[in-house]
Amino acid sequence: MLKVYDHPLSPYAQKVKISLIEKEIPFEALLPTAIGSGQTDDEFARVNPRQEVPTLVDGDVAVFDSTIILEYLEDKYPSPPMLPATPAERARVRMIEEVMDTHYEPINWGLAEVAYFGRGGDKLAGALNDAAAEQVSAFHRWLEAELGDRTWFNGETFGWGDLSVIAYINGSAGFGLVPPTGSKLAAWSERANARPSVAQVTAAAAQMSMGGNAAGMDAVKAALDQGLFKREYRDHRLEWMIKSGGLAVVVDGLERQNIRFTPPFDSR
User: Fold this and answer.
1) Residue 87 parent element (H or E)
2) Is the dihedral of CA 215, 30, 119, 134 positive or negative?
3) Which among 68, 97, 141, 218 is most buried, taking Cβ atoms within 10 Å?
4) Rounded to an integer, what is the distance from CA 165 to the centroid of its chain?
């Protein structure tokens, strides 16, 4: 059985799990030990030197990076296909995925920094939230145009373009930023969330962040305040925080040693 190193709240991991469920491929989801601390177990570091989720293990094959994992699944398990049939349409949904992964993801991540981990304090939190809300609204307009009159971002059937968008739309909704009522994007979101594959990963994310895990989130915040838990400020996330007015957040995090960057590659 395939193994997926995963965190239920990771939109990158959600993309991979949705594809696996749509393709009816059995898999085991594994949460790496000490994830977020910068100190993960040797086995996880061996299969992914970047020490990030998701990571797919298929026998002797280990694949990291959500896009590359999706491509691997499409190559090895082509039915049902997640990509459209024509080169032009494949390029279109891959561009949508790239935008969501590198431009939209850091907005939700920044909102979580403020809401869950207290970044910015009273002075910057409001400005960061306002910047995020304005940016999400702009992306909602862009996605509305990209969807057009299609039933799915992929076209007639659910696929790569849709699983690349829904996790991020749901992430923003958790902060009260939803597609405009009556919009095509809002209707698409309802259709996507009704799919069993999406509902399954969404339920896992909700279980991680709500109910009995509320105290757990408080414990994570306490660990972060002590520098025992470090949030990863890689590439697009670092850019978002700085351009959105949060340079002081980065400086403070470095001083308190509760932010981190991609670890050095270490083949164990």
Assistant:
1) helix 87-99
2) negative
3) 97
4) 10
Question: Residue 255 is inside which H or E element, if any?
Answer: helix 247-256
Contacts of 254 (CB under 8 A, 6+ apart): none
Token pair, residue 12, equals 């990158």
Reported as a single tens digit per residue, the pLDDT across 247-264 is 999 999 999 999 999 877
Backbone angles phi, psi at 229, to 5 degrees: -120, 135
* Beta-carbon-side half-sphere exposure of residue 24 (alpha carbons within 13 Å): 2
DSSP 3-state of 232: strand
Which candidate, 215, 206, 237, 224, places its Cα nearest to that of 110? 237
So what's the pLDDT on residue 36? 56
Cα 98 from chain centre: 12
Question: Tens digits of per-residue pLDDT, 58-99?
Answer: 999 999 999 999 999 999 999 999 999 999 999 999 999 999
Q: What dihedral angle (degrees, nearest 10) is formed by the CA atoms of 121, 127, 128, 134? A: 160
Separation CA 186–CA 173 (nearest Å):
11
- Taking each helix axis from N to C end, the angle separating 121-147 and 247-256, rounded to the nearest 10 degrees, works out to 120
* Cβ burial, residue 71 (10 Å; 0-12/13-18/19+): middle
Angle between helices 196-209 and 160-173 (to 10 degrees): 30
Banded model confidence at residue 211, pLDDT cuts 50, 70, 90: very low
* Residue carrying structure tokens 């994007």: 185
Cβ proximity of 162 and 191 under 8 Å: no
